[in-house]
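Quick illustration, no need to memorize.
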Amino acid sequence: MIKNYLLILLKITSAFILLMTALPTFPQEPKIFMRSDYDLKGPVKSCRVITDYGKEDFDFNNEGFLTKSVTSYSGNDYDVSYYKYENNRLIERRDERYQDGSFDEVTSMAHFYSYDSLPELKIIEKILSYNKEFQEQYEYFYNAEGQLIKMLRSHADGIDETLIEYTTYKDESTISYLLNGLLQKTIRTSFKKQKEGKMSKIVLTKNFIEGIPEKAVEQIINEKDQVVSSLEFIYSAKEKSFVPMEKKEFTYDPQEKLESVTSIIKEKKATEEYLYQFDGMEDGNWVKKIITPENSYTSRVIEYYDIVRKEQD
C-alpha cells in the first residue's frame, strides 16, 4: 500500500511498471520525463522528495532530462530507474528492484529503444530481465502528423495489437484505443467559452474492459492548462449509463500552485488546503507542502547546478 500511495503522489507510476505478465495489457507510449513533470523550475540538478511514508530521489542532466530516480520504501526496499538518451531521444531505461537489501535480477528490467524514421516514425522497445530472459517487445507506429496510430506487443503467447483512431465531429475530437479489435479507451476533447470570454477545455475519458464500459472521468481545464474540476463516473449495467460518483473542484494561488481540492460525494463536501514554503532561489521552487486539515506534509531538498548558486552570491 505504501508503494502505491507514493507512486501516485509523485505521478510517476508509469516509470516503474514492470511488464511481466503474458495477459493483454494496455501499452503506454514511451515518455521522456523532464524537470517540469515534477513541478520544478530552473536548472535543478537533483530533488529529494520526503513524506512521512517514504522518499523519492530524482537526478537531472543539464538539459533537464531525468537521468535517475530512486523510490525508497525502507532502508532495504527500494527501486532504482536509470535513463539514457541520445540526440534527445530515450534509448535505454533500466528498472532495478532491491528487496531486503538484495538485488532481484528476475523482476529488474532493461528497456532498449530503437528508432526508424522512414517513411514515418517507428519506435521499437525491447524488454529483457536482468537474468537475460526476453520478456516482450513493443512496436509503436506513427503517421505523417506524428500521431501514434498503432502499437504491437509481442510476448510468449502471441501478439496483441492496439489501434488508435482519431475522429472529429463539429468542434469535438475523439481518440479511440482498440485492443485486438475491442474498445479499451476513448478520449473526447471539446471547448466551451466561459462568461468572461475565456475558453475551457473539456476532456471526457472513458475506460472499457473488453469493450464493456467500466468508468469515466470528465475534466474541465482552464486556459492555463490547470484542471479546475473533475467528475468521476461508474458504469451502471442496470441503468445502462455512466452514473456520477465523485466531483472534485480545484483552486490555484497567484503562483499557479494548487491551493485547494474540494471533494463532493452525494452533496457531502470535504476540502483540503495546500500551504507552501519556498527555497528563496530565483525560480522559486517549493521545499515544503502542508495539506490541511490532516496536517500531512511533503518536503523537498533541491540542489541546483552551479550557475544558479553563483547568481545568488
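Confidence is low (pLDDT under 50) at residues 1-25, 308-313.
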